[in-house]
Amino acid sequence: MEKKNYSILEKIDQLGLVLFGESNKDILHSVGPTYQTQVKNAFDIDRPSIGPKYALMKVTNRCNSGCIYCNHSIYSTTPVSQNEPSTQEIKHTIDEVANIGALSINLTGGEPLLRQDLPEIVQYIYEKNLVSILLTNGLILEKRWSEFIPKHLDCMLLTLDSFDPKLYSIQRGADFSHAWAGFESSLKLRDSSPSTSVFVTVTVTRSNLLELPKIVEKLSEYDVPVWFSPYHHYNINEVDENTPSDSKEIEEVINTLLAMQENGYPIANSQTYLKQFGPFFLKSAQLPDWYRCYAGYIGVYIDAELNVRPCWSWSLPVVGNLRKQDLDSIWNSELFYQQRKRIKNLDCSRCWLLCTAEPSIRFLVWGKNQS
Ligand SMILES: C[S@@+](CC[C@H](N)C(=O)[O-])C[C@H]1O[C@@H](n2cnc3c(N)ncnc32)[C@H](O)[C@@H]1O
Ligand code: SF4
Ligand code: SF4
């Protein structure tokens, strides 16, 4: 295998920090160990003495895509909420997130680009001195990318599950030509606005498993790092044809990815995370014995009705609503404490999603070797 040597690797390392709320390494080294001790103490008593480091915020439930695995799909039978937050409410929420001491906001959905005011929201995050991260399917980015040039977007994560047009449209329910145009637009944004990093995320299913090394090869041509995340089957009563089930294939692909990463290919995941894909897929979402989830301790989740939740999962209840309460009181409420106890015991739907498992892994190994 050809040895790659990407300057982008430095950026990957930084993204790990950005995603988890530290925008540069100096901050990590100075506050990291103290923060880790504070959270570990909080974990023992379920009561953090400090606020979350990052917020995941769903700015809409609407979507323009039809992904087979997502409950926001345009084909989903779940009703779309009419209760979407206004621009003012989103800005108020950003104020709350800043006031509680978080360092980054991850804008997600549904499809965030469907909001006309998204550039204004990104600009407001910048004004509040927070790191902005945008998760998007990119389908309408071609029309909108230039609006973000002056808005100081820190990071764009574009979900692009395949470079095979047929496979893409089966898995994502949308035309690949729009996704490709979105990808090219994200590169134009990166070139026009050097402070914006661009990453691709790939949701790994039975259909695209064998394509993963090719995806990495292709993305390396554009200096774009990739995050992999395993497909999660939410309804255990349904036949699940999307979960990879061939143990040999999974092992070979993961080993290839690990070797590619060793050789400098731009794969942003930790090795610990990638190595768990096999057990996760094959053994009914098994998590490692040593694993602790820090959702609700280091991060907070705000849905598109301004409900606050410990994490994305509906297995844990809403713990408050920002239309009625402030984030600080919700974060320190008895209800939130009770849910943290459940998280500590993994009394939840359990997951190995990028947005919570990678921060938790990095948090668990903070100060040690990050692999
Ligand atoms: C819900 S989407 C919202 C942002 C945007 N619409 C997008 O697709 O990137 C955020 C991420 O969740 C992933 N996702 C959705 N359903 C999933 C599932 N059942 N298992 C794993 N990841 C899933 C998507 O592929 C995407 O990367
Ligand atoms: S584009 Fe994103 S929100 Fe929409 S259906 Fe796909 S994964 Fe879900
Ligand atoms: S393991 Fe997943 S479902 Fe459980 S608390 Fe953590 S993020 Fe939520």
Describe the structure.
By secondary structure, the chain is of the alpha/beta class. Helix content is 40%, strand content 12%. It has helices at residues 8-19, 25-45, 87-99, 118-127, 141-144, 165-172, 176-192, 212-221, 247-262, 271-275, 277-282, 327-331, 334-344, 354-364, and strands spanning 54-58, 104-108, 131-136, 155-159, 197-204, 226-230, 299-302, 307-309, 320-321. A 9-stranded mixed sheet has the order 6-5-4-3-2-1-7-8-9, with helices on both faces. β3 (131-136), α5 and β4 (155-159) form a beta-alpha-beta unit. α3 packs parallel to α4 (118-127). It is globular and about 50 Å long. The two termini are 21 Å apart. 43% of the residues are buried. S-adenosylmethionine binds next to β3 and β5.
